[in-house]
Amino acid sequence: DPSRTDGLDPLTLAVDTLSAEHDTLFVIAAGNNNGGLIGTPGTAESALTVGAVD
Predict the structure, then answer these.
(1) Are the C-beta atoms of 48 and 28 separated by less than 8 Å?
(2) Mind listing the pLDDT tens digit for each residue in 38-47?
(3) What is the full DSSP assignment across the chain?
(4) Which of 5, 6, 7, 13 is the most exposed place for a label (fewest CB within 10 A)?
């Protein structure tokens, strides 16, 4: 399932790398699919992932 990630997908790794290299906080949408799952790159450890509720 592409909406799940183990933190090793290219987008997640890129966010973590760029955050570390540039001392930057990335604010990323959690996604609008699959109920309570957070998609990539929102699963990056260094990301601030945001969501919404209807």
Answers:
(1) yes
(2) 888 888 999 9
(3) -TT---S-SHHHHHHHHHHHHHT-PPEEE--SSSTT---TTTT-TT-EEE----
(4) 6
